[in-house]
């Protein structure tokens, strides 16, 4: 969610930090600020709004100093205004911090500080932590010790960076539940909440572990636990290129990422799909093969778009491997004392690998003895490191807040997982070959759909002013309807709902009139005739029908107002293809409405708080 960039070295820190913050804008935020250690003390500038508003407010080049930290805030405690923006300082103004996460016991700490005579400027939990650290420094006369002592007492989550005039050549970083990485340069170091902020300066990084902190100086760094036990740092290399986090000539990151899907989907099965054998090679699961073979139940936990992918995964795994599957919202799973057995497999799906609710869910599952697998996109993320085994999506950096290519990559990996598990059980080699062959054709099918983007744009123009949409699908395509509705809501702010098509008559049909567009996912599968009946029910009430249909379906044009064609494939793979025009439709409607497509209001790319 919030973005952090810190720097210590020989360069002027402020321009470098602001440049890094701009690379993190996709994460979602509502204010920005920087703190530079100057000859006269801490120089703090912060402003509600985008980084551009901060640059307009202050001349960044005038902030002279080679140590500093910056932040983009996504509001939790307190309005998104100048005062609540980060950085925050202690009472003396000599210690400053930026903070991602939530301090859950801040009310108790704040009460103690108020009783001791301390005052506060903002409504934030983060300022409480800054003042608390300052109070402890007054008692201990040691910045690092004050930070460690404070963090041992706070409850909640944090990705934290602290700078101080007491130790002007030092940065302290710490994490619990919110990611931080160190960028290792030549005589300089960066700390950031995302590798995108450091890739322009170095590819060498260290991922901080849970409850770990780092002390950065110009001549080196050390890592330790918050309890002061030294830890061993492993330097890794960032795998993506700087060009991958730039627009590359597209108007928006979201459009670029939609058009990248032929490549990213292929990358998801490259080296894995064994077409002639009708199976899949998933090296990340080698250590748990016996547990997968013996599994009596699979639980998939996720949030948002990843949850919709999980629903498709449920259909796929039960269909191909005949294993019972349950799909859980991670935010509910963690609190409802779920029944988990030691022979259960729990799969956590997350684009970022840092989703707070999903992390909590996997830790709950591990406590109960389950084998936990991760399906994530970001290499080195917390879920990737904390699960027993897993599979990377290989979708590359996804900058647009509304997920597109990561969703189809999740479906790619889930299909392969279902095939992998199915071949361990009752699925024949010939059946496996058919699925593998069709899966290998998907990238070219996506290219075919993308060539029809202008037709989708024309439909979007016609419906960009409506207030409500209904998305309907059956079987494998019901989750695709949910995801299509979510995309429209996220970026155009139009109310949209996804339903199983047969459920329409059990309530939503009351909404249908001549102002209500209804999108049907209607491939020619075993329930095609049923969907046609549902379309007729909408037509009888003057609803506008937009159908996602097979290329060779001639009949459906006679009963739909608009038809968007997709290539024919196996029914289980249709959700992948159907999702592409739904992504385009949401994108073009949002553009027509003048919405900020890449950074929709109130949303964040990586949801690291509850």
Q: What is the arithmetic mean of pLDDT? A: 92
Distance between the termini: 11 Å
Radius of gyration: 25 Å
Question: What structural class do you assign from the helix and strand content?
Answer: alpha/beta
CATH topology of the largest domain, which one? Glutamine Phosphoribosylpyrophosphate, subunit 1, domain 1
Strand content: 15-25%
User: How does the overall form come out from the CA principal axes?
Assistant: globular
SS summary, helix count: 18
Order of strands side by side in the largest beta sheet? Answer: 3-2-4-1-10-9-11-14
Helical residue percent? Answer: 25-40%
CATH class of the largest domain: Alpha Beta
Can you say what the CATH homologous superfamily of the largest domain is?
Aminohydrolase, N-terminal nucleophile (Ntn) domain
Biggest sheet architecture: 8 strands, antiparallel
* Uncertain stretches: none
Number of domains: 3
**Count of individual beta strands:** 26
CATH architecture of the largest domain: 4-Layer Sandwich
Written overview of the protein:
This protein has 610 residues and is α/β, with parallel strands linked by helices. It folds into three domains: 3-238, Glutamine Phosphoribosylpyrophosphate, subunit 1, domain 1 (4-Layer Sandwich); 247-450, Glucose-6-phosphate isomerase like protein, domain 1 (Rossmann fold, 3-Layer(aba) Sandwich); 452-597, Rossmann fold. Helix content is 35%, strand content 23%. The longest helix is centred in the C-terminal third of the chain and has 22 residues, at 429-450. The radius of gyration is 25 Å and the shape is globular. It starts with a strand and ends in an 18-residue tail after the last helix.
């Amino acid at each position: 969610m919030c973005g952090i960039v810190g720097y210590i070295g020989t360069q002027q820190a402020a321009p470098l930090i602001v440049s890094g913050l701009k690379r993190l804008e996709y994460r979602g935020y509502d204010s920005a600020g920087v703190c530079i250690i100057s000859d006269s003390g801490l120089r703090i500038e912060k402003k509600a709004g985008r980084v551009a508003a901060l640059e307009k407010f202050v001349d960044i080049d005038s902030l002279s100093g080679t140590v500093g930290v910056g932040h983009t805030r996504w509001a939790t405690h307190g309005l998104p205004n100048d005062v609540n923006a980060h950085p925050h300082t202690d009472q003396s103004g000599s210690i400053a911090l930026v903070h991602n996460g939530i301090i859950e016991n801040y009310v108790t700490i704040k009460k103690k500080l108020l009783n001791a005579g301390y005052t506060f400027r903002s409504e934030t939990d983060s300022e409480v932590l800054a003042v608390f650290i300052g109070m402890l420094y007054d008692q201990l006369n040691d910045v690092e010790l004050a930070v460690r002592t404070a963090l041992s007492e706070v409850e909640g989550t944090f990705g934290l960076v602290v700078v101080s005039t007491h130790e002007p050549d030092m940065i302290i970083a710490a994490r619990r539940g919110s990611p931080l990485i160190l960028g290792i340069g030549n005589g300089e170091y960066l700390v950031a909440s995302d590798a995108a902020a450091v890739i322009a300066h170095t590819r060498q990084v260290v991922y901080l572990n849970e409850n770990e902190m780092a002390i950065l100086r110009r001549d080196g760094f050390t890592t330790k636990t918050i309890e002061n036990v030294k830890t061993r740092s492993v330097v890794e290399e960032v795998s993506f290129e700087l060009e991958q986090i730039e627009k590359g000539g597209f108007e928006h990151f979201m459009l670029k990422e939609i058009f990248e899907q032929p490549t990213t989907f292929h990358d998801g099965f490259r080296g894995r799909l064994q077409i002639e054998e009708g199976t899949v090679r998933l090296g990340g699961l080698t250590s748990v093969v016996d547990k997968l073979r013996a599994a009596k139940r699979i639980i998939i936990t996720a949030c948002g778009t990843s949850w919709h992918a999980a629903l498709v995964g449920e259909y796929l795994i039960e269909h191909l491997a005949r294993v019972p599957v349950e799909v859980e919202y991670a935010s509910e799973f963690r609190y409802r004392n779920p029944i988990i057995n030691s022979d259960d497999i729990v799969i956590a799906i997350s684009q970022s690998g840092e989703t707070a609710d999903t992390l909590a869910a996997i830790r709950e599952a591990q406590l109960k003895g389950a084998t936990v697998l991760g399906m994530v996109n970001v290499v080195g993320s917390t879920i990737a490191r904390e699960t027993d085994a897993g599979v990377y999506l290989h979708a590359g950096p996804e900058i647009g807040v509304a997920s597109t290519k990561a969703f189809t990559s999740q479906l790619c990996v889930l299909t392969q997982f279902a095939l992998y598990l199915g071949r361990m059980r009752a699925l024949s080699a010939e059946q496996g070959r058919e699925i593998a062959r069709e899966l290998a054709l998907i990238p070219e099918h996506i290219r075919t759909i993308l060539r029809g983007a202008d037709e989708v744009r024309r439909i979007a123009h016609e419906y960009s002013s409506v207030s409500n949409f209904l998305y309907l699908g059956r079987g494998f395509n019901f989750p695709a309807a949910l995801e299509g509705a979510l995309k429209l809501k996220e970026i155009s702010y139009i109310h949209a709902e996804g339903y199983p098509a047969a459920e329409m008559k059990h309530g939503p049909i009351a909404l249908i009139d001549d102002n209500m567009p209804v999108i049907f996912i209607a491939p020619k599968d075993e329930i095609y005739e049923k969907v046609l009946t549902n379309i007729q029910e909408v037509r009888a009430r003057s609803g506008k029908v937009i159908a996602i249909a097979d290329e060779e379906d001639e009949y459906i044009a006679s009963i739909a107002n608009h038809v968007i064609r997709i290539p024919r494939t196996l029914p289980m793979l249709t959700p992948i293809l159907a999702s592409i025009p739904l992504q385009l439709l949401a994108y073009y409607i949002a553009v027509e409405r003048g919405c900020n497509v890449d950074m929709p209001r109130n949303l964040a790319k990586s949801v690291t708080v509850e």
